[in-house]
Amino acid sequence: xxxxxxxxxxxxxxxxxxxxxxxxxxxxxxxxxxxxxxxxxxxxxxxxxxxxxxxxxxxxxxxxxxxxxxxxxxxxxxxxxxxxxxxxxxxxxxxxxxxxxxxxxxxxxxxxxxxxxxxxxxxxxxxxxxxxxxxxxxxxxxxxxxxxxxxxxxxxxxxxxxxxxxxx
Length: 168
Prior knowledge:
The structure is a single chain. By secondary structure, the protein is an alpha+beta fold. It has 1 helix and 10 strands. It has a 6-stranded antiparallel sheet, with no helix packed on it. It has a 4-stranded antiparallel sheet with strand order 5-6-7-8, with no helix packed on it.
């Protein structure tokens, strides 16, 4: 069997529009323009959704200073806070979280998550936010993980005999 080459018929070329005459847009050109405009608008809208960068290279990684104000208030018995554990308490109506790194030291922080304001809770040697899972280091209040960018605010804490005191 042999194949025979047949001539291919082509559509006649459209004549070029005369100079000065209005050009009728094709559907393809309208779709291209619409897609380009829509894509540009989406890109601009999404650019506004980018989260702000932390305020510095170590934002959330540096503990906040301990305030020197406030009157010490008993928040719990020392025997209820074993070395290496965390707990929650209240000092003058302010909720705090505590960490005891060694036998002679107690650390206190605000229990308000720096991301969305939820109350963080003791979680082993850390504090965890139940709302968006931010985790803060019990030893210094810095951010371990999560959407939070800033460390927990600190309070002055001390061991006073058999009591843990916090100054708020």
